[in-house]
Design brief:
The chain is an alpha+beta fold. Helix content is 29%, strand content 24%. The two termini are 55 Å apart.
Length: 597
């Protein structure tokens, strides 16, 4: 908070915050309130670091106040009155903003006494996660986590400012809505007024934001809560998350890209000193991302690229490669330039890691000056070696990893190997946020278990080529106007140009196995709206939690959420989910049938 805004913080409890006083305040009479962060008893003189939301000030207690402080535990809340004094030069603490001064206490008033703490606040004592989440209000007092939540607030404020500067207005959409097949399980809410029927919490405000476009609002955004019954992982919060939900009318894909780039660049440039990709962000087609990086979330800070080298081994005598090529598989290579050749143990460990991860084998070749060695060196001809050096641009010392098989079986795991090698050999560019767009997603995909055709991404997207593609193309060859924003290996946003034509929508859903009556039942409101004049429209929805996670340089999304669920999908602080009374169940016409053990 700026010094100009500190006037709003004055009250009977404080004349200044614990981050405000400077050497220019020497001799000033002040009143401060906060938590006892640290306490040091020097025999008759007690030093306390007093902490509030804004910072820390050292307080010096002598005489009766020092005696009283002896029995006050850390994290108790105090109000003190005293005078500002300059510290001796050798005692200045440059780590805190108030490090040039201290406050000599002449009056102490305890406001709230703390019990014995379940874990330490000032120091990380490695308390178990379950204990920290049970006492999350204490963990939120820790400096790093506390600052993450403050950063989150500032990021959201910046998002609102940038969106409004581009002509967007914020509108709210319903929380209680209908169930929708959007790729994850819904959270269901039973209806008291309509027995046997349920509301669903929105996985996203998808239909409502499109309806706002049909209603003529042109440019919408919302910091929207979304609810999905998904399994937890490090970069995804189980249960609920927030996104910057955005929709705009009379636009093509490039118009959305321009808006998205201004938003992402603006937020990241404001809240980090790292270098940020300047607009326009690179565009990478989905198929190219998979073939080069093994993922549609590539980390462009990593320079390694996957190469398909099947053509180099059409006449190979290496039986493993030959058998895969005969089965119409492919050969993939990943080149790593090195200053020193890794140890044999490194190769053995990496092969074991890859095999455990994928169930597939991998091999390696070492180019060490003029010497060629490695697990498959004896199987390659001189012409194959020469062709490989030319294809992969190998000039001096390098290692090449190989894998053989179908793209679907090999590339996702080779992508993981690319990440591992980038980390192991410290190839990841530091101090930068590297953005890109992933474009041209397939409209449909085949379920490997059932063999059925289904949507691969957002069912409301416009297929490239419109109705003509749906009528005349193999569904698996149809692309959609769908796109993602990716930064440093994390998907930050999905989006699409929407399908605003009812007949094209019916046909698109028909290919995915939905009848016209099912579409009317699930999406009747939107279909009806489209029949009364719908503008071409599109949008996107960046995830707030992931944006803040990257800016805070955290690896777990729960570290930027004030009150996250645990990995067991429980709120350990509030005791949720919880059992409810029989009366509550009867009111919503629900009977609980527990699973058999």
């Amino acid at each position: 908070m700026s010094m100009n805004n500190c006037e709003y913080l004055r009250s009977k409890y404080r004349t200044h915050t614990c981050a405000e006083l400077r050497s220019s305040d020497d001799g000033k009479e002040v009143r401060l309130s906060g938590w006892v962060h640290r306490k040091r008893d020097h025999g008759g003189v007690v030093f306390v670091d007093l902490r509030d939301n804004y910072g820390v000030t050292q307080i010096v207690f002598r005489g009766e106040e020092a005696a009283l402080m002896t029995d006050i535990r850390v994290e108790s809340v105090l109000q003190i009155e005293g005078s500002v004094a300059l510290r001796d030069k050798q005692l200045i603490n440059s780590k805190i903003e108030t490090g040039e001064i201290e406050v000599i206490c002449r009056k102490l008033e305890p406001l709230s006494m703390a019990d014995i703490l379940p874990f330490q606040i000032a120091e990380d004592d490695k308390a178990p996660e379950a204990q920290r989440l049970t006492y999350r209000f204490l963990e939120l007092r820790r400096e790093k986590l506390h600052n993450n939540i403050l950063l989150r607030s500032k990021v959201i404020a910046s998002i609102r400012e940038i969106m409004q500067s581009m002509g967007f207005l914020e509108y709210q959409t319903p929380i209680l809505t209908s169930s929708s097949p959007e790729g994850a399980r819904d959270f269901l809410v039973p209806s008291r007024f309509h027995p046997g029927r349920f509301f669903a919490l929105p996985q996203a405000p998808q239909q409502f934001k499109q309806l706002l476009m049909v209603s003529g609002f042109d440019r919408y955004f919302q910091i929207a809560p979304c609810f999905r019954d998904e399994d937890p992982r490090a970069d995804r919060s189980p249960g609920e998350f927030y996104q910057v939900d955005i929709e705009m009318s009379f636009v093509e894909q490039e118009d959305v890209f321009k808006m998205g780039e201004e938003l992402m660049y603006g937020v990241f440039a404001r809240h980090s000193s790292h270098a940020v990709t300047k607009p326009p962000f690179p565009r990478i087609r989905y198929d190219d991302a998979i073939s080069k990086y093994g993922t549609d979330k590539p980390d462009l800070r990593n320079p390694l690229i996957i190469e398909k080298v099947s053509q180099l081994f059409q006449d190979t005598s290496f039986k493993v490669f030959r058998s895969e090529l005969e089965r119409l598989g492919d050969i993939f290579a990943l080149k790593l330039a090195v200053d020193e050749v890794p140890s044999r143990k490194y190769f053995d460990d990496t092969i074991a890691w890859f095999t455990k991860l994928s169930g597939q084998g991998t091999a390696y070749l070492i180019f060490d000056g003029g010497e060629i060695k490695g697990s498959v060196a004896k199987f390659f001809s001189q012409s194959e070696i020469a062709a490989l050096k030319e294809k992969l641009v190998i000039e001096d010392r390098a290692v090449v990893f190989f894998a053989a098989g179908s793209e679907k079986k090999i590339l996702p795991y080779f992508g993981r190997l690319r990440v591992k090698l980038g980390e192991d050999f410290k190839l990841i560019e530091e101090g930068t946020f590297r953005f890109c767009w992933i474009t041209d997603y397939p409209m449909y995909e085949r379920d490997e278990t059932t063999g059925e055709i289904g949507f691969s991404h957002n069912p409301f997207s416009m297929p490239q080529g419109g109705m003509d593609s749906l009528l005349n193309k193999n569904p698996l060859e149809i692309y959609a106007y769908q796109y993602d924003i990716v930064c440093n290996g994390h998907e930050l946003s999905s989006g699409a140009i929407r399908n605003h034509d009812p007949e094209i929508m019916y046909k698109a859903f028909e290919i995915a196995g939905y009848s016209k009556s099912q579409v009317d039942s699930k999406f009747g409101g939107m279909i009806k709206a489209f029949r009364f004049g719908a503008p071409p429209h599109g949008g996107m929805a960046p995830g707030v939690d992931r944006i803040v996670m990257l800016l805070a340089e955290e690896h777990a999304i729960r570290d930027v959420i004030a009150f996250p669920l645990s990995q067991t999908v429980e709120d350990l602080l509030m005791g949720a989910p919880c059992e409810v009374s029989e009366r509550q169940l009867r009111e919503v016409h629900i009977q609980v049938v527990m699973p058999k053990e």
